[in-house]
What we know:
Blueprint lengths: L2 E5 L5 H11 L2 E5 H10 L3 H10 L7 H13 L6 E5 L5 H13 L6 E6 L2 H10 E4 L5 E3 L18 E2 L6 H15 L2 H7 L3 E5 L4 H13 L1
Parallel strand pairs: 1-3, 1-4, 2-3, 4-8
Antiparallel strand pairs: 5-6, 5-7
Helix pairs in contact: 1-9, 2-3, 4-5
Amino acid sequence: MNLILFGAPGSGKGTQSALLVEKNTYRHFSTGDLFRAAIKNQTELGKLAKRFMDQGQLVPDEITIGLIREVLKKLKKNESFILDGFPRNSTQAEALNELLTQLSLKLDMAVFLEVDKKLLINRLTGRRVCKNCGAVYHIETKPPQKEGICDVCGGQVIQRPDDKEDVIENRLNIYEDNTAPLKDYYRKKGLYIEVDGTGGQDQVYQRISKVLDA
Ligand code: AP5
Ligand code: MG
Ligand code: ZN
């Protein structure tokens, strides 16, 4: 089963992908995580991406599409994928279509996580991440056991640079203009599934599992 997991910033794409990977055999590709890894490794790609990400802007399409092409090309025959944060606009969606055809891969579902704006802002402003391993926390719903220290690796837990309030506003606007229209795009393809993304993370996971099993 090959999936796109999409939704607004803070809708829980990363959280649900982690649960899906833990309990199944998916390869998880998050363009945001790939860019953050490039920033951490101070590569040319990272330097370029950072300029856009820190403002909450989209990284240019040709770069993002190239990145996804590289990871999908390396996918083994028996592996399934979850795309998290890609595609993010119609150009990327069309490019993905073409790429999947070229690689003889098929998309089975585009799962959309529905969360209202007020909750999105609460999740984003409260999110903290491990600087070292990327583990995701939330100051209210999922704090690390020792404040500021990652439960998984002992690394420093920080706020993502794009989780500052003014950048969040920008990201939500860009999402509305560019990414939300993909709901219709996948509806027309008969691949669209909407899942209620509110409630606890296990509750949301159960809802996703149900549609995947159906
Ligand atoms: P990206 O990293 O993809 O960020 P995003 O889309 O804004 O989404 P987030 O990662 O912020 O949210 P999420 O849905 O993963 O939520 P999470 O599970 O962490 O992209 C970052 C940037 O990279 C972009 O702005 C852009 O610049 C660039 N980029 C990436 N892809 C690109 C592309 N395709 N094209 C161009 N540019 C691209 O959860 C959020 C918080 O809520 C956490 O604290 C979590 O603990 C908490 N939480 C989650 N679920 C629950 C729950 N059920 N109950 C309680 N708390 C919960
Ligand atoms: Mg994410
Ligand atoms: Zn860590």
